[in-house]
Write a structure and sequence with these properties.
alpha+beta; 7-stranded mixed sheet; 5-stranded antiparallel sheet; 12 strands; binds biotinyl-5-AMP
Length: about 240
């Protein structure tokens, strides 16, 4: 299995930024963890609230050849869902493309970024709400921490180890060996977006339809009312139960 080095910081702007600094030095297989982030970010430069109590980490990788990196987002989500089950005895679900949630409340978000150059790097950022007691007004209704759900403190260190172990198992045995279908197969077991009526908001439009699957590039396949099937590459999903 991959050996990796963990760098732990009390506070960072963003673990993604620190991982980029490491990449500039040519380093990889490095995990950056911060107790809090002052400028944590989500997709599309959105703010990610990352006060003390959460798990904020970035995994810096230098894959031999970069294949569809969306599979690494999927692998991270699987690793998180599996580890939550193990550490907190809680069954969670994955929402396409990058959330792990419990009953519709977001527990974890994943941000995968690439650096292309002479050498190519991938940074998989994982933000998991673990022991926070409250959230800011803007996300209070949509976010949850494991502690808020389980009513007890969760050991972050153990959880972090579980997540990285699970992630590297998927990375070494499937992603690096080009067995991407295997990742998709496992991901589907945890994903609760498929076969649901959904509303998708992309940067340019809002779409209603039924999520009927994902293609080999991890895009969501959406069946519209007129039965046309379209491919969604990025966007936010609201599931209509
Ligand atoms: C994500 O973006 O879900 C990816 C979040 C990745 C965060 C990790 S932490 C370690 C690493 N370092 C970073 O700087 N980032 C990564 P997205 O799908 O765009 O969701 C962002 C939205 O989630 C925001 O607009 C809020 O509505 C909501 N949000 C913000 N903070 C949250 C939190 N702590 N818990 C739940 N939801 C949150």
């Amino acid at each position: 299995m991959h050996s990796h080095k963990i760098h732990h910081f009390k506070s960072l702007t963003s673990t993604q930024d620190k991982a980029k600094e490491f990449a500039k030095k040519g380093l990889s297989n490095v995990i950056i963890i911060a107790d809090k982030q002052t400028k944590g970010r989500g997709r599309f430069k959105r703010k990610w609230f990352s006060g003390k109590g959460g798990l904020w980490m970035s995994i810096l990788l230098k894959p031999e050849y970069i294949q569809n990196v969306q599979y690494l987002t999927f692998a991270a989500a699987i690793a998180v869902a599996k580890s939550i089950k193990k550490s907190a005895k809680l069954s969670t679900s994955i929402k396409w493309p990058n959330d792990v949630h419990y009953k519709g409340k977001k527990l974890c978000g994943i941000l995968t970024e690439c650096i292309f150059g002479n050498e190519n790097f991938v940074i998989v950022g994982i933000g998991l709400n673990v022991n926070q007691n409250r959230f800011p007004d803007g996300i209070r209704n949509r976010a949850a921490s494991l502690k808020m759900i389980k009513n007890k403190k969760i050991n972050i260190k153990k959880l972090t180890k579980n997540i990285t172990d699970e992630f590297f198992i998927l990375y070494d045995s499937h992603y690096s060996r080009n067995r991407l279908k295997n990742i998709l197969k496992i991901w589907k077991k945890y994903c609760d977006t498929i076969n649901k009526n959904v509303v998708i908001t992309t940067r340019t439009k809002k779409l209603n339809g039924k999520a009927i699957g994902v293609d080999q590039n991890c895009n969501l396949l959406l069946k519209l009312k007129n039965s046309k099937i379209i491919k969604i590459v990025e966007g936010d999903i609201r599931v209509r139960y």
